[in-house]
């Protein structure tokens, strides 16, 4: 059994090499900051941030600090085994407690691959994702930067759909998952 497996494995010399991009984090933050006006500042804002010992462990705190925020972070010591371990968006009580303890203005909790967040207010109360979509959609419409409407998933609350309808904002649904939301955004 082992001989058959070994026969089909690539030789180490054929696998290539890993090269660390030492400036990758700085380059990524530079790209992210292009989404903000040059005058944008978070000076005076305190943010509690849980990075879940995952993909955002370095860029998350660095981004907010570079924008002037005071950052209280946790989940920034990945060891290859502790991603999402009693931390991040799958363990929201941690960011709620941390936000209150540090008297932060907002708490942000990432998941391990940093493609989802849970947010809480300064009192440690979770702000539902549909409410965040409603606030952003309404604001972007008011500022005339909303293009084509808002996309939620099949899990989005019907109250959100009614909010957008009552405010003249087109609302579409996709299957659950960032891939499906992205596909719908590209199509519509």
The CATH class assignment of the largest domain is: Alpha Beta
Shape: globular
| Overall SS class | alpha/beta
Mean pLDDT: 92
Q: Order of strands side by side in the largest beta sheet?
A: 2-1-3-4-5
Poorly predicted ranges: none
Protein model, in words:
By secondary structure, this protein is of the alpha/beta class. It folds into two domains: about 25-30 and about 40-125, 3-Layer(aba) Sandwich (Alpha-D-Glucose-1,6-Bisphosphate, Chain A, domain 3); about 130-185, 3-Layer(aba) Sandwich (Alpha-D-Glucose-1,6-Bisphosphate, Chain A, domain 3). It has helices at about 1-10, 10-15, 25-35, 60-65, 95-100, 130-140, 160-165, 180-185, and strands at about 45-50, 70-75, 105-110, 115-120, 125, 150-155, 170-175. It has a five-stranded mixed sheet with strand order 2-1-3-4-5, with helices on both faces. The chain is globular and about 65 Å long. The mean pLDDT is about 90.
């Amino acid at each position: 059994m082992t001989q058959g497996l070994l026969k089909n494995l690539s030789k180490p010399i054929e696998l290539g090499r890993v090269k660390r991009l030492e400036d990758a984090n700085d380059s990524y933050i530079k790209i992210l900051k292009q989404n903000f006006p040059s005058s944008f500042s978070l000076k005076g804002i305190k943010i509690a941030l849980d990075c879940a010992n995952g993909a955002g462990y370095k860029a998350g705190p660095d981004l907010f600090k570079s924008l002037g925020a005071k950052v209280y972070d946790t989940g920034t010591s990945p060891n290859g085994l502790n991603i999402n371990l009693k931390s991040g968006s799958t363990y929201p009580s941690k960011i709620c407690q941390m936000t209150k303890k540090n008297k932060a203005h907002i708490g942000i909790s990432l998941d391990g691959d940093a493609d989802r967040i849970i947010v809480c207010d300064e009192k440690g109360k979770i702000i539902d994702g549909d409410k965040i979509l409603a606030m952003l959609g309404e604001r972007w419409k008011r500022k005339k930067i909303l293009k084509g409407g808002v996309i939620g998933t099949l899990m989005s609350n019907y109250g959100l759909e009614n909010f957008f309808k009552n405010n003249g904002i087109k609302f579409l649904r996709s299957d659950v998952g960032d891939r499906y939301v992205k596909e719908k955004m590209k199509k519509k």
